[in-house]
Every structure is written in C-alpha cells, then in structure tokens.
Amino acid sequence: GPKEKASSMRLFSALLKNRLSLLNFERNLNFFTRWYRYLVQVLPAVVIGPQYFAGKVPLGAISQTFYSFNHVLNDLSVVVNEFTGPNGLSAFSAQVERLNQLKDGIEAAEADVEGGGIEMTAPSSDGSLLISNLQVRVPGSDRVLLQDLSWTIRPGQFSLVVGLSGIGKSSLMRTVAGLWRAGSGQITCPPPAETLFLSQKPYLTLGSLRDNVLYPSADRSDVTDD
Fold first, then answer.
1. Is 133 helix (H, G, I), strand (E, B) or coil?
2. Among candidates 226, 209, 224, 177, which has minimal Cα distance to 2?
3. CA-based, 20 to 30 A from 109: which of 30, 80, 195, 221?
4. CA gyration radius for the chain?
5. Pairing of strands 183-188, 118-120
C-alpha cells in the first residue's frame, strides 16, 4: 500500500545516503593513505640530491637510491591494487553490476505490473469491491489460476474465500491489491485509504502505535491521542 511504499522509500533513501557517505569517507581515506605512493618517486632525489652536490656521495649512489625506493614500493603495486584489491576497480565494477541487475529486476517487475491485461479502474465512489470477468494467470507463464470470476462486495457485506491450498486464494488477493496484472478482466476497489490487506502472519507496519492503529490512513489530524 501507499504507507508501505513510503516507509520503503524512506528506508531506501537512508540506505543510499549511508552508502554515499561511506563512499566519500573511503575516497578521502584513500587520498590520504596513497599520496605517499607518488611522493616516493621524488623523495629519493630530495634525500640524496644535496649530498651528491656536496660531494659526499658518488653519482652511482643516486641510481642505487632510486632503485632501493622503487624496489620496496614496486611501481606496479598501484595498478595491481586498483584492479585486484578488495576495494579496487574490479570490486567496484562487480558492485555496479549487481546494482544494475537490481535496477533491471525492479524495472521488469514494474513493467509486468503496468503492462498486465487486468484493468484497475478508479476507486469506487461507494466503497464497493467490483470484479468483472476476471482471469488470473501466474506472471511469466500461461498457467491460469482463476477464470471468469465476477464478484461484488458492497459496504457492510462479508465474504469468506475458502478452498484447497494452491487454487488461487492468495493470488486473488494479490490481484485485487494490484500486485499481479497477468490475465484479463476489470477490478474496481475502494479508495486505498479505506483498504487494508492483512497478511497471513501477524504484521505491524513501521512506525508508532498510533500509526498502526490508524493504518492505512497516512494522516488523521482529527483523531487525538486521547
């Protein structure tokens, strides 16, 4: 529902903000810890240069100093670490690929919902649930769960859906909620603020006790805590 979506977006925004903060911290840390890799390329000349011009060391000492520094540091370590280290480009590329796969999965799920054959019409004005010529299929397959279902529930009426496991009771609820669109037919639901789908297991929404008591209403300023 809208409240779950808002809560999920709030949590995802916090997760994204935390990840960006972590990336910024790692970037600054890498700048601080890796600057020496480039500094040591000129450090041998700074150390041995004054001694050479003062005549204290021969010319060969300069090359030996450079060789010693480069041998310890290993010029190729920067490239190797960047591509094979735990925080290198290869790991970063893998993370980007996983995020891209997640993005493709979300877009595919949204396209499946938006492109389904079941029509979800505008909310009914009197709060009725109207189902007309409904056919429900399993998303991504041709398996038909429900066929030619027409059903009307008026305000104040009660209905109980019973049957063997696997005949499509939960699938019907998913379809009425708009989660499944594979099939055909038309569904007219009450307004979202007046509709509550209970899970098969005990469930509390994220938020305060007041939010759970007033659910699915997002804001009821006319109801006091008293």
1. strand
2. 177
3. 195
4. 32
5. parallel
The residue with tokens 């700048």 is: 31
Please name the residues in contact with 57: beta carbons below 8 A apart, sequence gap of 6 or more.
48, 51
* Contact (CB, 8 A) for 47 and 65: yes
The torsion angles phi and psi of 156, rounded to 5 degrees, stand at 95, -10
Q: Which of 182, 199, 192 is nearest to 216 (CA)?
A: 192
In the chain, the N- to C-terminal Cα span, in Å, equals 27
Which string of b and e fits 26-63 if b means at least 16 CB within 10 Å? eeeeeeeeeeeeeeeeeebeeebeeeeeeeebeeeebe
pLDDT in tens, 134-143: 988 887 777 8
Which pLDDT does position 218 carry in this prediction?
A: 64
How much of the chain exceeds pLDDT 70, in percent? 83
Sheet with 183-188, strands from edge to edge, namely 118-120, 183-188, 129-137, 144-153
CB 158 within 8 A of CB 98: no
Residues with Cβ within 8 Å of 68's Cβ and at least 6 positions away in sequence, in order, are 44
- Residue 115 pLDDT greater than 60, yes or no: no
69-106 residue pLDDT tens: 777 776 666 665 665 555 666 677 778 888 888 888 77
Alpha-helix residue ranges (DSSP H) falling in the chain: 2-39, 43-53, 60-73, 77-84, 89-114, 169-176, 209-214
Q: Supply the mean pLDDT for the chain.
A: 79
